[in-house]
Write a structure and sequence with these properties.
By secondary structure, the chain is an alpha+beta fold. It has 7 helices and 21 strands. The chain has helices at about 5-20, 25-35, 40-50, 55-65, 85-100, 260-270, 295-310, and strands at about 25, 115-120, 125-130, 135-140, 145-150, 150-160, 160-165, 175-180, 180-185, 190-195, 200-205, 205-210, 215-225, 225-230, 235, 240, 255-260, 275-280, 285-295, 310-315, 320. InterPro entries: FecR (IPR006860), FecR_C (IPR032508), Ferrdict_sens_TM (IPR012373).
């Protein structure tokens, strides 16, 4: 291990272990920390391996609150490979879990992970790594709550859109609740979006059970390259969909073919602080198509208006769509 690793690095590594053990982590921030100094990756790996060793669980519980009062030499900046130092780092993990989760230490197989909340700003795309090996990519202006437990994994999509890549685990189903809809998987990849009054699901890999929350009799199985929409209290029958390895919004693009304007609006609103309003509700059914950069929703609307016969008036707070 690198000789310039400090006690602060050890404390930071312990915190990252605690975060991984307790729930989702910010994958970008974690990667930046690892790459910020030689030896940090090895330090984290060693500490993680120690925490995963069942033989240290009882010792960790017993010593989590012990403070080491032994003096430290002035030149003690290197990693000290003695059991006391390793135990201090492990005890720091337990202490962090107690503070963050508000519960006493218990073995990992019986630990209920505390809930974590994540959200993105308008136009921001963010990837979240979960402790079970799954990843979630949030579209702009989106928010989720995550809870991982020993008997199941649960995510609530409160607003916006998210791409889920779920690690396979037969003993722990992965459930996502979004508005009035719910999907359940064991391991798959899918995109789920709250678009105004609709909940839209598209499956990129595997099979997803899609139903109205609390209504098992509405469930449909949506397979790879299929999509379904929850509307009117039940999901529609799955239909074929053109599936790419990554949804366009991950790279800031939007591609649509014969889409009602009413379905386009919530997608654009994730990328602008302004509201999008229509003077004539009949325009919601106007069919539009094209491929556009999401970073300028006003330009998208203006371009579509020129093609599909409507006008766009911009104010300080909104884009107003008008008839010809």
């Amino acid at each position: 291990m690198n000789a310039h690793i400090t006690e602060q690095d050890e404390e930071d590594a312990a915190l990252w272990v605690a975060r991984h053990m307790g729930g989702p982590v910010d994958a970008t921030a974690f990667s930046q920390w690892l790459d910020g100094k030689a030896g940090r990756r090895e330090l984290f790996d060693a500490m993680w391996a120690s925490c995963m060793d069942e033989s240290v669980t009882a010792s960790l519980q017993e010593h989590a609150t012990i403070q080491d009062n032994a003096p430290v030499a002035a030149n003690d900046t290197a990693v000290v490979a003695r059991p006391a130092r390793a135990l201090m780092a492990l005890a720091a993990v337990a202490a962090v879990l107690v503070v963050i989760g508000g519960f006493a230490w218990q073995p990992m197989s019986h630990m209920l992970a505390p809930g974590e909340s994540y959200q993105t700003a308008i136009g921001e795309v963010r990837e979240i790594a979960l402790a079970d090996g799954s990843t979630v990519v949030l579209n702009g202006a989106s928010a989720i709550e995550v809870q991982l437990a020993d008997d199941g994994r649960h995510v609530t999509l409160n607003t916006g859109e998210a791409l889920f890549d779920v690690a396979h685990d037969e003993k722990r189903p992965f459930t996502v609740e979004a508005g009035a809809g719910e999907v359940t998987v064991l391991g798959t990849r899918f995109d789920l979006a709250l678009n105004d009054q609709q909940i839209e699901l598209e499956v990129l890999r595997g099979v997803v059970r899609f139903e109205a929350a609390g209504a098992d009799n509405t469930a449909v199985l949506v397979r790879r390259a299929q999509r379904s929409v929850l509307q009117g209290g039940a999901p529609t029958a799955p239909v074929s969909a053109v599936v790419r390895s990554e949804p366009d919004w991950r790279t800031g693009w939007l591609e649509m073919t014969d889409m009602p304007l009413g379905q386009l609006i919530p997608r654009l609103e994730r990328w602008t602080a302004k509201t999008i309003e229509l003077e004539d509700p009949a325009l919601l059914e106007r069919r539009v198509a094209g491929r556009f950069k999401l970073s300028d929703p006003g330009e998208v609307l203006t371009g579509l208006g020129a093609i599909h016969g409507f006008q766009v008036r911009e104010t300080d707070t909104s884009f107003v769509i008008q008839g010809p």
